[in-house]
Amino acid sequence: MAEDSSTRSRVAIVTGGGSGIGRAASLELARSSYAVVVADLNAASAHSVAAEIRAFGEVASGVGCDVSCEDQWGKVLDQAAELGVLETLVSNAAIYPRMAFVDTRLDDFDRVMAVNLRGAFLGVSRCLPIIRDGGGGSFVLLTSGSGQIAAVGNPMQRGFSLYGASKAALDRWALGIAPELAPLGVAVNLLCPGAVVLTEGVVRLQLGEEAPSETISAERMAGAIGYLAKSRPPAGTGGRYVATEFGRTWG
Q: How many angstroms separate the most distant Cα atoms in the chain?
């Protein structure tokens, strides 16, 4: 007899889950009773976070994955199927190299767009049939203020034009597909930090005097992600939310 899907765990996939925001989101979702697939380019980091989750009694598995490669999504979805019914994808994996345009090569352009935009596209397209057939769910896509035209004049944004372009494209695409997926019971929402998240990756940028006064923790980001993971259409979809406003103007 086939297992009743109503008795199986709800599953969340978190890309870039091996560190920073992704790690915090994975822990938050696990504490909210999701079984979590921690996917990261660094397989060792993914397995380490999954072990953290299992250590406090929740269910998780880690898997190495380059989100820009379609053939690697199969193993992520296989892990999700082993844990339960896929309900949520948190598309967090991204790269943000800082470089002047005169130093930018075509390979740099291709890689940033591949991870930040193609990776999100592949995640949504591969997870959608499973989430839809499981009764609905949500996509939470991490974006950035770097993608906003208003950010262009900020000195801290110099060198992040390519990263910003990838996030601007992500915003337009995600908000465009949200009304298409709503009738399927699937929510699509964007989450922007609204301030710099002091993860290890950001610290390595050595912003120095350009470092902003306002920051947000990865844990606060995770709380906002956990809230959006529960969103459902018709009302809870098609939003671009700012995490620094979580608990103030939304959530």
A: 64
Given the DSSP bridges, would you call strands 186-192 and 196-197 parallel, antiparallel or unpaired? unpaired
How many domains would you assign to the chain?
Answer: 1
Residues in CB range of 87: below 8 A, 6 or more apart: 10, 11, 12, 34, 131, 134, 136, 137, 138, 229
What pTM was computed for the model? 0.91
**What is the Cα 136 distance to its own chain's centre?**
18
Query: Tens of pLDDT along the chain (251 residues)?
Result: 344 445 579 999 999 999 999 999 999 999 999 999 999 999 999 999 999 999 999 999 999 999 999 999 999 999 999 999 999 999 999 999 999 999 999 999 999 999 999 999 999 999 999 999 999 999 999 999 887 777 777 777 788 899 999 999 999 999 999 999 999 999 999 999 987 776 665 555 545 555 555 788 899 999 999 999 999 999 999 999 999 999 999 98
Task: Give me the domain span that covers residue 139.
Answer: 8-244
Domain at 75, CATH number: 3.40.50.720
Residues that are catalytic: 163, 167
**Does residue 249 lie in a domain region?**
no
Residue 90 covered by a domain: yes
> Has residue 251 been placed in a domain?
no
Residue 114 within a domain:
yes
66, 8, 238, 165 alpha-carbon torsion, rounded to 10°? -10
